[in-house]
Amino acid sequence: MKAINPYLNFPGTTEQAFQFYRSVFGGQFAVLQRFGDLPNGDQTPVQDRNMIMHVSLPLPNGSVLMGTDACESVGQKLIMGNNFSISLECESEAEVTSLFTALTAGGKVEMSPQKTFWGAFFAMGTDRFGVQWMFNYQHAPMPA
Fold first, then answer.
1. Any idea what DSSP says for residue 139?
2. So where are the chain's domains?
3. How do residues 86-99 score in pLDDT, each as one tens digit?
């Protein structure tokens, strides 16, 4: 495994939060994608198109702070306890599958391991203790 990074969820305030974090930690966003910029983004409800789908801010120690806006229009509801995930940056698709299978045993599968439009092999799930996990193997450059 390459890294463990925090992934934060916000109720529509991701952009403001990450501007603040950037002012504290410095650096530049590696990625900043809005829901309206996604494939089929025109099908995103108008009120959510400018919300942040994914932002990542590399930190000076080599880890990455990441985040998203939780959109109620697509069934996401932010409550304390689901406002963060632990994101594992894996070294292979096999490692994604292995860690995902082990950590979601007795828990809940949110997204089975699969290739994504952002050039990754990715999965999400919650373990039996309620901790949310993300598993990512970036096999192609992430679109800006």
1. -
2. 1-81, 90-144
3. 999 999 999 999 99
